[in-house]
Design a protein that fits this description.
It contains three helices and seven strands; from the N terminus they run βααββββββα. With about 150 residues, the chain is an alpha+beta fold. The protein has a seven-stranded antiparallel sheet, covered by helices on one side. A hairpin with a 2-residue loop joins strand 6 and strand 7. The N and C termini lie far apart (about 35 Å).
Amino acid sequence: MALIDQSVLIAAPVEQVWEYVHDASRRHEWDVRITRCSLLTDGPVAEGTRVRYSVRCIPGFPLPLTAHYAAFVPQRRAAIAFDDLPWWQLIESAVGAWHFRPVPEGTQFRSVFHYRLKCGPVGRWLDRTLFDRFVARETRRSLAILRRNLETG
């Protein structure tokens, strides 16, 4: 599996960062890959909660995806696994995790994305030349916006 691992220091308490990133209605405010996000499960977010995303893929054609929380440890760690990825999509499987660590300056927020592409050698070539770089860049952009939004209110 391939890995994207990015982190950012946010001058805000863990509780504030945790609440903001888990507010599905606000996900599009900081995650440049997401155009819409909604919970499919009633009640508070917990392990097993299902989520629907619209992901920027091709301009004008958002990609609908569903996922579920595979792990949920409040104010420490949350992980999602993507479900039912479309047969035509390049990604075979994907799991993302967020880690929250309190530090004297605020919160060390870490985003980790594990994925496997389809298409054997062609998929590996596409990953090395395009996909990995694109996802890493978009993750860095998203974390910078997250930081700015939380630090400037």
